């Protein structure tokens, strides 16, 4: 990744949470404090600052404040921007994970599976709660055998949190979040979103019900999200993948790996 693009990506990752958070500066870190809709956040190395001298003591100070606030003891950063943070997190006893960070590069034709409709949701769309339920089912199955379909979705949907749903609806209405779903006669089967800020956006939460995987639903949702971002004139479209296998799926939709997204949390 070129340095200007790397700076654009890091600036976006600093800016994106701010509309839904309060912020505290603690040593070399910015702590994002989630206070709406049940969304939970993390700390990041301060954008534009030199993170080479970050120590385990800096990490411990942030974790203490996170505990005081009832926030997750979690950190996120881009390794190529703040390489020293990984060592400091490990020295402080946190588990560190690496994820491919990709940026959209080449538009590629992505087919829509037969019998499936891909569409963008409005703020008042009745499918908004179902899209959130799909994501909950899909992400709860990460690393587990792929089971769970529309019945599991509907069980989660029956217990939806009205406050969280209203929060997402407000973000859609304010054009801070764009939600796309894949559905058939059974309802929503896959979903995803992107969150525009300035001239950049991140594709997040692309999820497919486990029983519906390997049909190309996630790729079709991603392609539609990218098309929407392009229509809006956004210059940088990024995402982080769970692992290399998932990254290869995104590469088939025109993304290429440019850096490493890092995450650390308490064991």
What does the model show?
This protein is an alpha+beta fold. It has two domains: 3-102; 117-251, Aminopeptidase, CATH 3.40.630. Helices cover 34% and strands 28% of the residues. The protein has helices spanning 3-15, 56-69, 84-91, 128-140, 150-157, 162-173, 217-231, 244-251, and strands at residues 21-26, 29-34, 43-45, 74-78, 95-104, 117-120, 178-184, 187-194, 200-208, 236-240, 255-265. The chain is globular, with a radius of gyration of 18 Å. 41% of the residues are buried. The model has no long low-confidence stretch (mean pLDDT 93).
What keyword list fits this structure?
28% strand, alpha+beta, eight-stranded mixed sheet, 267 residues, 2 domains, three-stranded antiparallel sheet, Aminopeptidase, globular
Put the structure in a nutshell.
This protein has 267 residues and is an alpha+beta fold.
CATH architectural group of the largest domain = 3-Layer(aba) Sandwich
Number of helices: 8
- CATH topology heading of the largest domain: Aminopeptidase
Q: What order do the helices and strands follow? A: HEEEHEHEEHHHEEEHEHE
Percent of residues in beta strands?
Answer: 25-35%
Please give the largest β-sheet: 8 strands, mixed
Total number of beta strands = 11
Question: How much is the average pLDDT?
Answer: 93
How many domains? The number is 2
User: What structural category arises from helix and sheet content?
Assistant: alpha+beta
- What Rg do the Cα atoms give? 18 Å
CATH domain class name of the largest domain? Alpha Beta
Helix content: 25-40%
- The general outline is globular
**Can you tell me the CATH superfamily of the largest domain?**
Gcn5-related N-acetyltransferase (GNAT)
């Amino acid at each position: 990744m070129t340095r200007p693009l790397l700076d654009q990506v890091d600036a976006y990752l600093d800016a994106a949470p701010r509309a839904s958070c309060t912020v505290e500066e603690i040593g070399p870190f910015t702590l994002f404090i989630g206070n709406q809709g049940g969304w939970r956040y993390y700390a990041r190395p301060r954008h534009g600052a030199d993170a080479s001298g970050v120590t385990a003591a800096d990490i411990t100070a942030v974790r203490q404040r996170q505990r005081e606030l009832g926030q997750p003891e979690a950190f996120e950063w881009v390794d190529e921007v703040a390489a020293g943070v990984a060592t400091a997190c490990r020295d402080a006893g946190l588990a560190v994970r690496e994820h491919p960070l990709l940026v959209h590069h080449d538009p590629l034709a992505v087919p829509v599976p037969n019998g499936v409709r891909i569409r963008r949701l409005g703020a008042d769309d009745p499918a908004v709660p179902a899209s959130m339920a799909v994501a909950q089912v899909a992400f709860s199955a990460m690393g587990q055998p792929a089971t769970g379909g529309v019945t599991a979705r509907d069980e989660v949907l029956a217990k939806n949190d009205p406050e969280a749903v209203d929060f997402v609806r407000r973000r859609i209405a304010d054009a801070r979040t764009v939600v796309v779903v894949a559905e058939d006669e059974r309802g929503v089967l896959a979903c995803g979103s992107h969150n525009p800020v300035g001239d950049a956006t991140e594709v997040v939460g692309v999820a497919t019900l486990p029983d519906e995987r390997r049909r190309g639903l996630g790729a079709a949702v991603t392609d539609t999200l990218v098309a929407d971002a392009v229509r809006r004139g956004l210059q940088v479209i990024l995402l982080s993948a769970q692992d290399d296998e998932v990254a290869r799926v995104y590469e088939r939709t025109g993304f290429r790996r440019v850096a490493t997204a890092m995450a650390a949390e308490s064991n």
